[in-house]
Automatic annotation (TrEMBL):
This is TnsA endonuclease N-terminal domain-containing protein. Residues 50-130 form the TnsA endonuclease N-terminal domain. One of its GO terms (molecular function) is endonuclease activity. Gene3D superfamilies: 3.40.1350.10. Keywords: Endonuclease, Hydrolase, Nuclease. InterPro entries: TnsA_N (IPR014833), tRNA_endonuc-like_dom_sf (IPR011856). The keyword Mitochondrion does not apply.
Length: 222
């Protein structure tokens, strides 16, 4: 998937009591991707819901020049995008803003050098920080991602879509109860509603508040 000028090091994830480390189960890559911080994990999660992203890989390495000295720069992520995307494939550095601020001059030089180098490869350079996506949005993606990881048989899909089309915008709670008053079915219908949101057949405001059965849903194409 990568440009021949980009190398990838084998990331070894070690337990770190100062930060969250582990492996993220990626659907797009059909493998687990190592992360070394909560922010990296959040970035990977957001990419799983970006329809322009085909795949991504951790720890890309490119040669950059800082103060006239050539060195190998290990970034955090390489993103491969669909050809129809208006964005180029990109090299991404994942950093908390307070880390950048502590060594502002150093990172400004480093990022400028990285940008110059990756642009020569017809790639974009991006810096992903905690300011890009809200905690609410990421929590909602985390909730929905389970429906990507463990697909369900959605036997209520047609009923749900028909009911939403009739009511335009409706709470998940009211929608489930319109389809069935049976408590057992209610739980199944609820899962089917969020499965359809995950598949983007239904939509809800993922930035507004944490997803609950009081969240309003509507057809995605409206």
């Amino acid at each position: 998937m990568e440009d021949s000028s980009i190398k990838f090091s084998q990331r070894k994830i070690k337990k770190n009591y100062r930060s969250i480390t582990g492996h993220f189960p990626s659907i797009k890559n059909n493998t687990s991707i190592g992360f070394e911080s909560k922010l990296e994990k959040a970035h990977f999660l957001s990419l799983e819901f970006d329809n322009e992203v085909i795949s991504y890989q951790e720890q890309p390495q490119v040669e950059i020049s800082i103060n006239g000295n050539d060195k190998i720069y290990s970034a955090d992520c390489y993103i491969k995008r669909d050809k129809t995307s208006l964005k180029n494939d990109s090299i991404v550095e994942v950093k908390y803003t307070n880390e950048i601020e502590k060594r502002k001059e150093y990172f400004e030089k480093k990022f400028e050098s990285a940008k110059t180098s990756v642009n020569k490869l017809n790639l974009d350079f991006e810096v992903y920080t905690e300011k890009i996506h809200s905690e609410i949005y990421l929590d909602n993606l985390d909730f929905l991602y389970r429906y990507k990881l463990q697909p369900i048989e959605n036997k209520y899909e047609n009923q749900i879509l028909k009911m939403v089309n009739k009511n335009h915008k409706i709470s998940a709670f009211d929608l489930a109860n319109l389809i069935s008053k049976n408590p057992i079915e209610y739980a199944l219908i609820s899962n089917c509603i969020w499965d359809l949101v995950c598949k983007e057949k239904l939509k809800t405001n993922l930035e507004l508040s944490k997803i609950t059965m009081n969240s309003l849903v509507e057809l995605s194409y409206e």
